[in-house]
Amino acid sequence: MTVGALAYGSVALKSAVDVDVLVAPDELRQAAELLEARGYRLLIPDSPRALESWHRVRKESVWLQSKSGVQIDLHTRFADNRTMIPGIGIRSAVRRVDVGNGVHLPTLNAADNFAYLAVHGASSAWFRLKWISDFAALVAWTSAEQLDQLYRRSLDLGAGRAPAQALLLADRLFGTLERNAPLRGRLLGDPANLRLYRAALKQLAGRTEPVEPTSRPLGTLRIHWTQFLLIPGARFKALELLRQIRSTLS
Fold this sequence. Notes:
With 250 residues, the chain is of the alpha+beta class. The protein has helices at residues 2-8, 28-37, 51-57, 110-122, 129-140, 144-156, 162-174, 181-188, 191-204, 221-227, 234-249, and strands at residues 19-22, 40-44, 60-65, 70-75, 94-100, 103-108. A hairpin with a 2-residue loop joins strand 5 (94-100) and strand 6 (103-108). The longest helix has 16 residues, at 234-249.
């Protein structure tokens, strides 16, 4: 909801199927009990007994209230790989966003939100057009100087190459770097950025009808290998490999 208000000036213009809620890891069980008390049932994972072990490997669980149809993605962190954007969490500075009817909801500040949205999209190689559309709409509100600052800050926050991938993809689809050719040039100068951008573009383009990666044999393979490029260095790649193995086995 807050992304829609910030990007489009109205929550009604953004397509969404869920509401993301962040809680502290040590308050996961309490948050789960509150959701259950309000009629939500756990969809993913499929057993409440697996909830805590699930969150040790993944950033979120999925809850649904059948009566209203509202889905909540309950987060205990912002990235599946704990080495990405580790400084953004429950204690990060927030701003309150007017989502209509006098309701103001807390969300991340501009720099943290920029980094998080880039990492969120990169975690799935941007296979849904609405994700990059929202990112591009947010970028469109910023000046060239502000965008430079957001990009540099995202690197400090540990977003790796995810913001570069997002910016190049948004530029290809929506021309968002037309006012910032120097930044575009810097991003294009990294071959890994190009590989990530092209992989994401293939997720979106070339088909007459959108196809979910999970609906095709080996459809998520491109997503998995792009994760290894998000941060340079052997240590990150080893940790990412371990994470993917644990995710597959759990």
